[in-house]
Amino acid sequence: MPKILMSGNDAIAEGALRAGCSFYAGYPITPQNELTAYMANNMPKRGGVFIQAEAEVAAINMVFGAAAAGARSMTSSSSPGISLKQEGISYIAGAELPAVIVNIMRGGPGLGNIASSQADYFQATRSGGHGDYHCIVLAPASVQEGYDLTGLAFNLADKYRTPAIILGDGMLGQMMEPLELKKQSLKPKAKPWALTGCAGRKANVVKSFYLKEGDLEKLNLKLQKKYKEIRAKEQRWEELFLDDAKVALVAYGSMARIARAAVKTLRGKGKRIGLIRPVSLWPFPKKAFTRPKNKYLVLEMSYGQMLEDVQLALCGKAKVEFLGRSGGGVPAEEEIILKINKIYNG
Amino acid sequence: MDKIYSHPQALRDVSTHYCPGCGHGLAHRLIAEAVDELNIREQIIAVAPVGCAVIAYDYWDFDCSEAAHGRALAVATGIKRVRPQNIVFTYQGDGDLAAIGTNETIHAANRGENLTVFFVNNAVYGMTGGQMAPTTLLNQKTSTTPGGRNAQFHGYPLKISEMLALLPGVKYIERVALDSAQDIMKTKKAIKKAFKNQIEGAGFSLVEMLSPCPTYWGLSPCESLDWVKNIMAKEFPLGVIK
Amino acid sequence: MPRITINKDKCKGCLLCVSACPQGLIVVEEELNLRGIKPVKFKPGGKCVGCALCALMCPDCCIEVYK
Prior knowledge:
heterotrimer; B: alpha/beta; Rossmann fold; 7-stranded mixed β-sheet; 9 helices; 8 strands; C: alpha+beta; Alpha-Beta Plaits; two-stranded antiparallel ribbon; two-stranded antiparallel sheet; 2 helices; 4 strands; globular
């Protein structure tokens, strides 16, 4: 299949369009503006709806409405804008609506900067909004994966009636790589609960509000059951040179690309280094840690967020080291190699 | 003998949680009657507010969505844009539409979304215990303006309908009152017009209904109707604004 | 002769119908209803004209009108 050169932002948008996304609402924020522009150009041509909303808050609520009416709906933003969307995401989860939210992470906290970071891991995986809910979180590490995982996100969101987050970062959004426009495997699901007008059936209500005693607990138990199933079935990760590894690096997204380079360099020098690259961040791929290595080195463009999930997965069965930079700082291959040399024989 | 009046089909025959003399009961019923008379129950998708009418979907018998506080017009935009063949309306109080939701309100109107909006203005926040609303009148006592609304500290009552009328995307705005049989009949006419506008694709239509809140005005239901007619309607004049 | 029926247990005692009736045919009951308030009742023997203003004013759809 021929490949075309595309940026990460564009590839995620194209992946969404080919997965049948028919509604997009967004608000400009760097470094994901190309995604919004791509949708503005292409959504109407493919018979869908594009709205530049007045704010990220409005955009997520428009997505709520479009999803409630049965359409595959998406919004995208970057860290501060995703903070704004947290209320809406909580409502989407509580009302059991499918939707895809793309976060092209930038430096924070606050207005931060427009460089890459991975400092929204907690926000994405610990349900950034209020209440006991989870979003499925997928972390692409290449333009191709941006395209592929967006399609998967729509399928999973529909399958489980839950929001799904694509967690990218500024580097991934901006970089250009060859992309194979594979056919998205659409898994359309009937949506008898959707709001389409009550002809021929009882009226539907889409809500997350249960005042009567016991009713909200029932909803929460239903959500917990759903999350249990997702944890069992939807863990995704990639392994590189893991079998005989003495030290396993753990990194996702753009960080994993740098980690991969470090692994190859060190393997060339005879060091037994491997890599675990989580692709699903929620559910966290605990299954990748069932046969513990001696040591793990977690690498993040943050000060240690996924680190905690690695520690939890290992439960003290191995030593876990950490190297991270944030605020736009990116651990370089040389820094990683230095760190590994320090810890390899320790 | 024929039964010439009964509860409308689009309204479930259940008791509501609304206070005695609350305007919501009237507004819900009038909207349901309009839906029945226009025969659009099966096309309707309503968006409920956060406020006393948060469970409006328990009373109306057609498709409904909730919305986060203030976001009803964003939710309605999403629904209507993907299902233009349905009739989509929002039902919002003064906090939902003119405080937290002001941004969504102005921009849905500015985009000229082909939506119908019912704005129930009772000059107070009922559900949360009677706090000041954007439309609270000067000198009106509420739990957050215990000495009465003071322009210097609290600003003036917000005339959101007059503000929205400035926007070219807005097709129709009328302010009505639920204060007498005559005005209630006018309200129903306005409701039907606002629905018909959407059916005809004419654009953003809003009906502001001055509505009694006996509980937080500290008046009896009958006194509340008088307060709407004699006091509220002086600050918020009735009639077609656009 | 036109008449109305009032669902007395749905009635919340707001009394809007009482002032709405031009013939004064709606009065307050003596006994409490299931809500613990005194609902309204239709005065038997009165000259109802079936104007339905009472039903128009009722926020709770308690009134049905027969003509």
